[in-house]
Amino acid sequence: MDERQRLKELLLSKSYRKGTFTLTSGKTSDFYVDGKQTTLDAEGGYLCGRLLYELIQNNEQPITGVGGMTLGADPLVTAVSLVSHLDNNPIPAFIVRKEAKGHGTGNYIEGKNNLQPGAVVALVEDVVTTGGTLIKVIERVENEGFKVGLVVTIVDRQEGGAETLADHGYPLKSVFTREQLIGKRK
User: Fold this and answer.
1) Strand spans (E) along the chain
2) Which terminus, N or C, of the chain has the lesser number of Cβ atoms within 10 Å?
3) What architecture does CATH give domain 3-182?
4) pTM recorded for the entire structure
5) Distance between CA atoms of 64 and 184, rounded to whole angstroms?
6) pLDDT tens, 132-174?
7) Three-state DSSP class for 165?
């Protein structure tokens, strides 16, 4: 079985839920993808790292850092960074805080010292709905002097996120769209 198909099985068994859910965007939905149930699983985390790394490697512009908003992106940025190291193409990871650190350096971004000034980075997310959170992350990352060259996700819910990001000039690539994971809307 190929890695993508295996990850799909893990997502459906560990992360996908039917019911009524309120999403981060405030919208309600008849399904939920709790990505952390898969990304924090040993096999699931590895497969996410492999498949996101492939998307990053296929980007036109070379990516020299990978990061995302804590907490959802934490296991993903680590997985991608580890996979890149195993491929002898190390890409350092960084994590964007929701709030600036209240002590010490007061950083919004942890791990930024591993990046070159002006580095072109990829942002990762487990699930993208409207793209609102990613726009905030992009602003924080670019305010620190880095350039976002790509946004990648495990699941694009196909609820406007790709369009929102494209409107701001950022491409979104996904391992799975909603349709590829669970089929068309009824």
Assistant:
1) 16-22, 28-33, 65-69, 93-96, 109-110, 120-128, 147-156, 172-177
2) C
3) 3-Layer(aba) Sandwich (3.40)
4) 0.94
5) 36
6) 999 999 999 999 999 999 999 999 999 999 999 999 999 999 9
7) helix
